[in-house]
Amino acid sequence: MLASRCFRLCSLCSRVVYNSSRGRGGGGGAGGRRTLTGHTGLKYANTTVGQRWGTAAPKRLCHSDVEDLYKSESVQRYLQQLMDEHRDISKKLEHPYLSESDRKLLMKRHTELLPLANVFESTEQALKDLEEVLSLLHSSSGTKDEDTQLTQLLKEEEAQISHKILALRKDLIKALVPSDPLDSSDILLEVVSGRTTGGDICQQFTREMFDMYKGFASYKNWDFEVFNYTNAEYGGLHHAAVRIAGENVYRYLKHEGGTHRVQRIPEVGLSSRMQRIHTGTMTVIILPQPVEFDVHIDPKDLRIDTFRSRGAGGQSVNTTDSAVRIVHLPTGIIAECQQTRSQLQNRDTAMGLLRARLYQSILGKETEQRYTQRKQQVGTRSQSERIRTYNFSQDRVTDHRTGYVTRDIKEFMRGGEALDDLICDVLEHTEREAFIEVVEKSLKPSV
Predict the structure, then answer these.
(1) Which of 157, 138, 131, 144 lies closest to 1 in space, CA to CA?
(2) Does residue 112 register a pLDDT over 70?
(3) In 10 A of CB 194, how many CB atoms?
(4) What is the pLDDT of residue 382?
(5) Which residues form the Prokaryotic-type class I peptide chain release factors domain (predicted)?
(6) CA gyration radius, the chain
């Protein structure tokens, strides 16, 4: 009997490996097709996968969140609707009498649904594999000691398949959520010191946030080009604008825009004399810069001012009027640059910055809404609009949109893996929300 069970386990494992290498699972007719959540073995997806972090680790979204999402009747109906559509299109494409235009339209939709269908079928096969493993575990329970090794192998296989099912469900969310066409764009990032509360603590925090995003750009191997950097007292920062270029920059940083709050006992500046916890804010602004855009600017619509760069003192003080400020008179949009001693270079950089801002305002209603995000992200810079709190006294960072909590704030402010983990958590949350919105919208009865 032991030899027979080992053979069945080996056969199961080899089939799982083979199906994974093919990138798809078993088929099945529409009548016998199982839903993604209607399987008794799915409960093990939450109980067999070990916890990755301890109590002091970041607060991740629980597996049960994904589980509850797929238990939703509307999600099940929507998935089944898409799978029925995929099968129907596949049958239609087999007919030789299709016109070229109809075939082209069907092929386009078939291509859109194919990744989802592959993940759906892979999930079905994983459910079958899990059912077989659980059946073997049930039949081996209460037997002789010689089955102990087999039981351990079966439990390990159960954990692996359960983890695979969870990963496939996340892949389904990504396959269903429409991608943002600007995700691959470079961005213009601005950091602005809060003006309503905190004083010098806001300016110091703004500099730290600037350094954090600079560190994150280095961590991601992105280019980080400074357009403007306006110093403040006590080593703080009033405002800075940078261009960040690289792979999927906008996708990762688009949710960083908004008000960030800091709580700490200041080490320098006027606030440090009071030796108590102070609260301040700063604002992050994210604007996408598509790879290809062309904006015509009439020179008559520009006012160009020159002034001396504001340095930190010593050799950094510029003794010539090399800094450039350009105002687009029809819109009131302003761009300035003071990063080099060359007025010509600063002017070219400021013009590029102005073009990027104008681009947001002339692409129609949809892009105009994106441009107004700048105003929404700036807001009043008050504490009530915060998206994230950095509590140095309690060594904690909290994202208020998802409830994500992480410790070791000094490591977080370096802009490495800790920040990447939080950003990915926010991305998962927003993708799940977008997924629910797509499902609800698709199932609304047409008027």
Answers:
(1) 144
(2) yes
(3) 25
(4) 41
(5) 308-324
(6) 28
Question: Residues with Cβ < 8 Å from 252, sequence gap 6 or more?
Answer: 220, 423, 427
Range of the domain at 78: 2-176
Q: What's the whole-model pTM score?
A: 0.63
Which tens digit of pLDDT belongs to each residue from 20-29? 344 334 434 3
Residues 216 and 96 in one domain: no
- How many structural domains comprise the chain? 2
Q: For strand 258-264 and strand 386-391, is the pairing parallel, antiparallel, or unpaired? A: parallel
How confident is the model over 137-178, as pLDDT tens digits?
A: 887 766 655 567 788 888 888 899 989 988 888 787 777 777
Distance CA 444, CA 447 (A): 9
CA–CA separation, 239 and 225 (whole Å)? 15
Highest mean pLDDT among 149-153, 323-327, 388-392: 388-392
* Same domain, residue pair 60 and 133: yes
* Strands of the 323-328 sheet, one edge to the other: 302-307, 323-328, 333-337
Where are the extended beta strands (E) located within 246-301? Answer: 258-264, 278-289
